[in-house]
Amino acid sequence: MNRLEKKVAVITGGGGGLGRIYARRLAAEGADVAAWDLNGPGAEETARVVSETGRRGLGLRVDVTDEGEVMAAAKRSFETFGRIDILINNAGIVRDVPPVPIENITLAQWNQIIGVNLTGAFLASKAVVPYMKRSGRGKIINVSSGTALHGGLIRLDYICSKAGVIGLTRALAVMLGPDWINVNVIAPGPVPYTLRDLDKGAKPDEAEAKFPQELLYAGRQLKRDIQPSDIDGLVAFLASPESDMITGQLITIDGGRVFVG
């Protein structure tokens, strides 16, 4: 029996990239999957990919910064599957990978990145927790970034949003522990491939690289590229009963660039 048999997962940002990779992995482990994404056709394609594994998929166009849309999507997902057991807060945006001076960042840009990366995780969690409580347990997996831990060579609004996700995780872990809802956060380093190529079945060594190697490997103890397969197994573990006594934890996937604890 698969370890996620009879479980239902919601994945924000599930319309492509790592979101689709997580959906495929959780479906392979036995879960039905609802993919939420601002890109509606992408979410529907993820649902189709899930159905190819023999599991049920649902693709919904959802703006995670819109509370009404998020609440409606949670209701639709529950009505479709009859339960919600797992939430992966994967939706996120970043612009202009090189750092930008603080005086050049507009309030509108700040609000947009905080809105998607942090407020979106808050709203999705708020929407699904009541359904998890009906089942007597649940798993929330938030996606932060290694940049939240080492500062990184990237925009400060993105770094701040991902640091906020770590704080949200710890607060929710304390709040939801009595309800047997585990809340953990992963902090991957950069995956240096064009994820749309991976969506189409390309192997990492066939996909276009996005970052220079000297930037990727700086401070890393294990000097190779981070691949999606390094991340989706951890997500599946945190979604499974094998992690039932793990909550409030930050786990890095960065080849040993940052040591936590």
Model description:
- The longest helix has 29 residues, at 107-135.
- It contains 9 helices and 7 strands; from the N terminus they run βαβαβαβαβααβαααβ.
- It has a 7-stranded parallel beta sheet with strand order 3-2-1-4-5-6-7, sandwiched between helices.
- The model has no long low-confidence stretch (mean pLDDT 91).
- It has one domain: 3-Layer(aba) Sandwich (Rossmann fold), CATH 3.40.50.720.
- The chain is an alpha/beta fold and 261 residues long.
- α3 (67-81) packs parallel to α4.
- β1, α1 (17-28) and β2 (32-37) form a beta-alpha-beta unit.
Strand content: 5-15%
Order of helices and strands: EHEHEHEHEHHEHHHE
| Relevant CATH superfamily | NAD(P)-binding Rossmann-like Domain
- What is the count of helical runs? 9
CATH architect. name: 3-Layer(aba) Sandwich
Strand arrangement in the largest pleated sheet: 3-2-1-4-5-6-7
Calculate Rg over CA atoms: 17 Å
Per DSSP E runs of 2 or more residues, the count of β-strands stands at: 7
Give the class-level CATH name.
Alpha Beta
- The unreliable regions are none
Can you tell me the number of structural domains? 1
Please state the structural category: alpha/beta
Tell me about the largest β-sheet: 7 strands, parallel
Helix content bin = 40-55%
Q: What features would you highlight for this structure?
A:
261 residues, alpha/beta, Rossmann fold, seven-stranded parallel sheet
Secondary structure elements and pairings:
Elements (H helix, E strand, L loop, with lengths): L7 E5 L4 H12 L3 E6 L2 H13 L4 E5 L5 H15 L4 E4 L17 H29 L2 E6 L3 H4 L5 H21 L4 E8 L6 H5 L13 H4 L11 H12 L10 E4 L8
Parallel strand pairs: 1-2, 1-4, 2-3, 4-5, 5-6, 6-7
Helix pairs in contact: 1-2, 1-9, 3-4, 4-6
